[in-house]
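Tokens for Cysteine desulfurase. Go.
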Amino acid sequence: MSSAILEKSRISESPLLPVVGQDLAAPLIHGGTTRYVNLDYAASAPAVEEVAAHLAEVLPYYASVHRGAGFASQVSTSVYENARHIVADFVGARPGDTVIFTRNTTDSLNLLAGCVQSLLAGHGHADGASNEHGEVLYLDIEHHANLLPWQGLPHRSVVAGHSIEATLHRVETQLRAGNVVLLAVTGASNVTGEVLPVAELAALAHRHGARIVVDAAQLAPHRRIDLARDGIDYVAFSGHKLYAPFGAGVLVGRPDWLDAGKPHLAGGGAVKDVRLESVRWTDGPARHEAGSPNVLGAAMLAKAAQVLAALDPGQWQAHEHELRSHLVAGLEALNGVTVHELFSDSASRPGCGTIGVVNFSVEGYDAGLVAAYLSAEHGVGVRDGRFCAHPLLRRLGLASGSLRASFGVGSRREDADRLVDGVATLLRGGLGSDYMVAEGRWVPANDSRTYPSWAPNTPGTAGAAPCSTD
């Protein structure tokens, strides 16, 4: 074996970055424990150890921000405001772009939807001109976070084609028809991991007088984003998917719509002056950040952005590509397993490809049952359901749900092997335990495993949303 091939084969043997919990022990239904394999990064990623260490540094200084004269408050204010600059650099923001910290990606997109609503009502133009016939355009493959906020506004949807090329053509046809003020698209599918050509989509939107917002909840933890280079007007993503705890989100983009839009929350910090019957709102990020902000969440999001920005892009993508290719090859080699994808040309088209997400189903088994089995009998955590993308799952013929394995900088090749071995064992010998449905979820019957002493529930009894709503 040549040294180049040997080196490539070693890329995914170890995590690219150490993460908290990478050696967590998970109890098995038949007794004993095993190293927990976390293949659910796309839902919430574990914290990178460097981010967790930074939390320990910042936590003693945690205090209210912006108006405190005390030393801790001043330090916290500095950390919070500097986080905006770090995040702006991370996404290649233009000079003057606004960085607003939110609760999560969903909150960011709802905030922008409120501003677009003001625009359509005539409050988003400097001259007060109405754009009452304007519409928002989005794809049918979107996560609910980038679909539901627009349904309350004039809108049109585009059914994605079987290729990216066909999808771009359909988007352009709708844009050419006129009246679109905003194109809302995902950067990478949270269901299949396929990446959309956001720069091409941005150029199409601008060519027809529209702006673009990219839901980068899945893209940002896997690929670098550059608003200025790619012509993206707005981007939204979340810290909890970016290897940062506390769940802060962020919206970055052009300030005019944001400054003219109705404040996202009415409360202290978003105002210039308040009277008993009136208020003068401020501009800039504070306009939409009323109340006490998630200081630690913003700080950890920014630290995670710094850590990812320091990665070598080639090594980062090579690590994910090899892991994903290895997992897909292993699953596709099993009779009865189908790996699901949207586009025929995602692998070959420049600027596209895939991130660390693989969607699959196992013939003859409910997705929720497979997920429960993998966890209880193999210590492997995957996601099952419809992934807050119901229209897309129906398109794929998976209305009852499927399985999703997702990974990132803390993943290793052994994780993929453990999943493939678990599915192979299921297909070869069936379930090794009895399972039942409790509160809408498959769980092992007669489960005697327990959570840590500080966690209130035992496995199989914790409340969970039914599969049909995932």
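The first strand starts at residue 25 and ends at 27.
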